[in-house]
Write a structure and sequence with these properties.
The chain is built from four helices and nine strands; from the N terminus they run E-H-E-H-E-E-E-E-E-H-E-E-H. By secondary structure, the protein is of the alpha+beta class. A hairpin with a 2-residue loop joins strand 8 and strand 9. It starts with 7 loop residues before the first strand and ends with a helix.
């Protein structure tokens, strides 16, 4: 009998990041969350606008990820914009830190999803696009759409 692959449920995709940045590499990391945060995420009350990750003291941290307070929460509800720790292996973190420091790249969350019962974030090692790159990408997308319509 074959093993079942883990069930993946995508919660949120950061489409703006793909428009604003060239994604050079991807990495899957876990997140340290509180109970009310998980309940809000399951309800879809999450935003990755302006979110980014950094390496500090050989640990990964995620900034500006907004998770709305849980509706039925009490006084122990979470802060929506608190800094969240990301979980990855030490070797991966050191490689990311080296790339960020040397080449001037940044870590942007691309996707939030549940892998089984664990919440995962797909981080991208990204380089910012210039305005002409963005225009070129839009032009290519329009050409592709037009070709698909003709067929």
């Amino acid at each position: 009998m074959a093993n079942n692959p883990e069930h993946i449920t995508v919660i949120l995709t950061n489409r703006r990041a793909r428009h604003e940045y060239h994604v050079l590499e991807r990495i899957e990391v876990g997140v340290v969350l509180r109970g009310t945060e998980v309940k809000s995420i399951r309800g879809g009350k999450i935003s990755l606008q302006d979110a980014y990750a950094t390496v500090e003291n050989n640990e990964l941290f995620l900034f500006n990820m907004h998770i709305s307070p849980f509706d039925k929460g009490n006084i122990h509800n979470h802060d929506p914009l608190r800094i969240r720790k990301l979980l990855a292996r030490k070797k991966e973190i050191s490689k990311l830190a080296q790339k960020i420091n040397e080449k001037g790249l940044t870590l942007i969350p691309l996707q939030v999803y549940f892998s089984g019962r664990h919440l995962k974030i797909e981080l991208g090692v990204c380089k910012g696009k210039k305005t002409y790159d963005k225009r070129q990408a839009l032009k290519q997308r329009d050409i592709k759409r037009e070709m698909e319509r003709q067929f």
